Amino acid sequence: MADLRVGAEIPPFVRTTDAANWNRYAAVNDEFVGIHMDDESGRAAGGTGAFGMGNMQWAYLHNMLRDWLDGRGRIVSASCRLRSMNTKGQTVTAGGRITGIRVVGAQTLVDLDIWTQDVVADRILAAGAATVALDDPVDGAHD
């Protein structure tokens, strides 16, 4: 965590999604729902075809935070609101930006804005916030 300061972006988590990704996710989560597997069902639900599971956006955000922490802390809280569908062939980037750093007792808490987006269309798919606790205190941490 070389760049631990307010305003710093954490390394992104990037995936290009398609029916194979959704099928694997559905198999693990028993979520074989027509709108995620069949273009006609997806169109009937308001999409341009089949579309990805909303919980996959959450999983990408979670993966991004865990990759960044790299075993040096834990996720205290995280939330997101889904804004747009993930469509086939879309490259989804999960990103985060530090909004606050504070020491509470013996732990350093880092607050972040988090999001997933389709970079090509410049569209946010999900947006939220997270707080992580670092294992090693950061001296002089402040907003």
What can you see in these coordinates?
This is MaoC-like domain-containing protein. InterPro entries: HotDog_dom_sf. It comes from Nocardia jinanensis. By secondary structure, the protein is α+β, with helices and mostly antiparallel strands. It has a single domain, classed as Hotdog Thioesterase (Thiol Ester Dehydrase, Chain A), CATH 3.10.129. Helices cover 26% and strands 39% of the residues. The chain has helices spanning 19-29, 34-37, 39-44, 54-69; strands at 9-16, 73-82, 91-104, 107-118, 123-134. The chain has a 5-stranded antiparallel β-sheet. The mean pLDDT is 91.
Structure at a glance:
This protein is α+β, with helices and mostly antiparallel strands. It has helices at 19-29, 34-37, 39-44, 54-69, and strands spanning 9-16, 73-82, 91-104, 107-118, 123-134.
Shape: elongated
Strand portion: 35-45%
Largest sheet: 5 strands, antiparallel
**Domain unit count:** 1
CATH fold description: Thiol Ester Dehydrase, Chain A
Q: First CA to last CA: what distance?
A: 16 Å
Number of helices: 4
CATH top level assignment: Alpha Beta
Protein name: MaoC-like domain-containing protein
